[in-house]
Amino acid sequence: MSALQTLAEVKISGNLGSIGYGLAAIGPGVGVGIIFGNGTQALARQPEAAGLIRSNQILGFVLCEALALIGLVMPFVYPF
């Protein structure tokens, strides 16, 4: 019975890790949507500032995706 309980605990903790990463990916997903949505609006208002707006969009995208990657790596760094 002990081996069965251990197997069940491992299976449950793995599923919780997947749910945790899914929740951690919501924030960067929303952030990327906001960044590119507002960037598109800014480009429509001021097309002459396209270079500056695009570089700021890319910087914001990279920072948001870094948060998603940190959420992906955390379960491997600190296992249950």
UniProtKB/TrEMBL annotation:
<dbReference type="GO" id="GO:0033177">
    <property type="term" value="C:proton-transporting two-sector ATPase complex, proton-transporting domain"/>
</dbReference>
<dbReference type="Pfam" id="PF00137">
    <property type="entry name" value="ATP-synt_C"/>
</dbReference>
<keyword id="KW-1133">Transmembrane helix</keyword>
<dbReference type="InterPro" id="IPR005953">
    <property type="entry name" value="ATP_synth_csu_bac/chlpt"/>
</dbReference>
<dbReference type="GO" id="GO:0005886">
    <property type="term" value="C:plasma membrane"/>
</dbReference>
<comment type="similarity">
    <text>Belongs to the ATPase C chain family.</text>
</comment>
<dbReference type="GO" id="GO:0008289">
    <property type="term" value="F:lipid binding"/>
</dbReference>
<comment type="function">
    <text>Key component of the F(0) channel; it plays a direct role in translocation across the membrane. A homomeric c-ring of between 10-14 subunits forms the central stalk rotor element with the F(1) delta and epsilon subunits.</text>
</comment>
<dbReference type="GO" id="GO:0045259">
    <property type="term" value="C:proton-transporting ATP synthase complex"/>
</dbReference>
<keyword id="KW-0375">Hydrogen ion transport</keyword>
<keyword id="KW-0812">Transmembrane</keyword>
<dbReference type="InterPro" id="IPR002379">
    <property type="entry name" value="ATPase_proteolipid_c-like_dom"/>
</dbReference>
<keyword id="KW-0138">CF(0)</keyword>
<feature type="transmembrane region" description="Helical">
    <location>
        <begin position="58"/>
        <end position="78"/>
    </location>
</feature>
<feature type="domain" description="V-ATPase proteolipid subunit C-like">
    <location>
        <begin position="19"/>
        <end position="76"/>
    </location>
</feature>
<keyword id="KW-0472">Membrane</keyword>
<feature type="transmembrane region" description="Helical">
    <location>
        <begin position="19"/>
        <end position="37"/>
    </location>
</feature>
<keyword id="KW-0813">Transport</keyword>
<dbReference type="InterPro" id="IPR020537">
    <property type="entry name" value="ATP_synth_F0_csu_DDCD_BS"/>
</dbReference>
<dbReference type="GO" id="GO:0046933">
    <property type="term" value="F:proton-transporting ATP synthase activity, rotational mechanism"/>
</dbReference>
<keyword id="KW-0406">Ion transport</keyword>
<keyword id="KW-1003">Cell membrane</keyword>
<protein>
    <recommendedName>
        <fullName>ATP synthase subunit c</fullName>
    </recommendedName>
</protein>
<keyword id="KW-0446">Lipid-binding</keyword>
<dbReference type="InterPro" id="IPR000454">
    <property type="entry name" value="ATP_synth_F0_csu"/>
</dbReference>
<keyword id="KW-0066">ATP synthesis</keyword>
<dbReference type="InterPro" id="IPR035921">
    <property type="entry name" value="F/V-ATP_Csub_sf"/>
</dbReference>
<feature type="site" description="Reversibly protonated during proton transport">
    <location>
        <position position="65"/>
    </location>
</feature>
<dbReference type="InterPro" id="IPR038662">
    <property type="entry name" value="ATP_synth_F0_csu_sf"/>
</dbReference>
<comment type="function">
    <text>F(1)F(0) ATP synthase produces ATP from ADP in the presence of a proton or sodium gradient. F-type ATPases consist of two structural domains, F(1) containing the extramembraneous catalytic core and F(0) containing the membrane proton channel, linked together by a central stalk and a peripheral stalk. During catalysis, ATP synthesis in the catalytic domain of F(1) is coupled via a rotary mechanism of the central stalk subunits to proton translocation.</text>
</comment>
